[in-house]
């Protein structure tokens, strides 16, 4: 048997072992499907850049091999007739689609507790959440079951779980990776991202899935990301730390994570200085208006007629059919978003909420553009914490949506500004991973990856932060 097929068998064992421990990171897996792909790729290692790499796929990304449920009852058992572009490109590059991973229903959430199929456990502490919404992808990578995973971000759903689980997570610039086959949540924000145990693996996956796609009219006409060559130091690179991301009441361990990253960047000869992104406080409120507004429109298609499992009944008129299908098919958080989104778009409230949120979004985007503007002595990269705390306990924020939303305070600005960002583990606090993020100007993924790999080489992510 070829070494590649043997490695795929080992990956299958690891996935099954993680799941038998109750991780619940996986929504669909079939050993034979994985081994079948391995046998097709075996022998072509020399020509395929990702030959044999096992990649798990978040279950809001369409795959032909497995159902695509978005962790929702309404799509239970749904099989996409087509492959997402990112998945197709991965397979063409020789990667093996290992399984589909758990998420907050329709990617709405920050803990993977809003899955209709049960919560995913944090791989290091079963009482805690892995983050979300790409929690299954992050947990599975952290558990060492797969080489990498696809996730999606609308407002931080790759970076936040990556930070909680102690893995690398990159959200590319909006438009860098085709959204074709990514189930729409907030279409002006949605972007496929990558989770992996190290920066190089994330870069290799991103280099394959990025690039223009005629099937997604918002995909940017820009060449795919190249895997950047290793670099020794960061001399000449200017890094800014926004004061708004280090509020006085920030968890001290998270602050120590940023300080450690700062020291390591300086050791690598980068110049680090304080900057300001003054509209940061508007990000969470703006995000939680814009994302639900777009979701309320995108999710209108799940009515039991066009899409979604229909709830039948005797002599239902069409209104009642829609009501039952949507009332039973969607979970509480999804229903909340639809209601909020419909409200902020409705006559009389549109100006007060949606219009102002869009203006706030522009102000946030301008903050970043100014910070990166060379003619104003701007910086090349921004260093910031990824999350305000380490992984929280399951149930802790479930009944308090606003506190759950605030878990996104440091991640969602980059989504609103459509700029790329990468989170990587920097150390531990009482055994739990602490992540930091680097944010760059639009389409600066190569520089981000390069700086992240220098930081990765210098940091010991297992070390307690003191
Ligand atoms: N936590 C955010 C939300 O609930 C982000 C989700 C995402 O990025 N998909 O909307």
What is this structure's SSE topology?
Layout lengths: L2 H18 L5 E3 L2 H11 L12 E5 L26 H8 L3 E6 L33 H8 L5 E6 L5 H7 L2 E4 L19 E6 L2 H11 L28 E5 L9 H16 L3 E5 L7 H16 L19 H12 L2 H14 L4 H23 L8 E5 L15 H5 L6 H5 L4 E9 L2 E8 L5 H14 L8
Parallel strand pairs: 2-3, 2-4, 7-8, 7-9
Antiparallel strand pairs: 1-3, 4-6, 5-6, 5-10, 9-11, 10-11
Helix pairs in contact: 1-2, 4-5, 8-10, 8-11
Q: What can you see in these coordinates?
A:
The chain is an alpha/beta fold and 466 residues long. It has helices spanning 3-20, 31-41, 85-92, 135-142, 159-165, 199-209, 252-267, 283-298, 318-329, 332-345, 350-372, 401-405, 412-416, 445-458, and strands spanning 26-28, 54-58, 96-101, 148-153, 168-171, 191-196, 238-242, 271-275, 381-385, 421-429, 432-439. It has 14 helices and 11 strands. It has an 11-stranded mixed beta sheet with strand order 1-3-2-4-6-5-10-11-9-7-8, with helices on both faces. The longest helix is centred in the last third of the chain and has 23 residues, at 350-372. The N and C termini lie far apart (48 Å). The structure holds glutamine.
Looking across the biggest beta sheet, what order are the strands in?
1-3-2-4-6-5-10-11-9-7-8
Bound small molecules, by name, code or SMILES, are: glutamine
Note the gap between the termini: 48 Å
What class do helices, strands and sheet pairing give? alpha/beta
Helix content: 25-40%
Summarize the main sheet. 11 strands, mixed
How much is the radius of gyration in Å? 21 Å
Low-confidence stretches: none
Q: What is the overall number of helices?
A: 14
* Overall geometric form: globular
Count of strand segments? 11
Average pLDDT value? 96
SSE series? HEHEHEHEHEEHEHEHHHHEHHEEH
The portion of residues forming beta strands comes to 5-15%
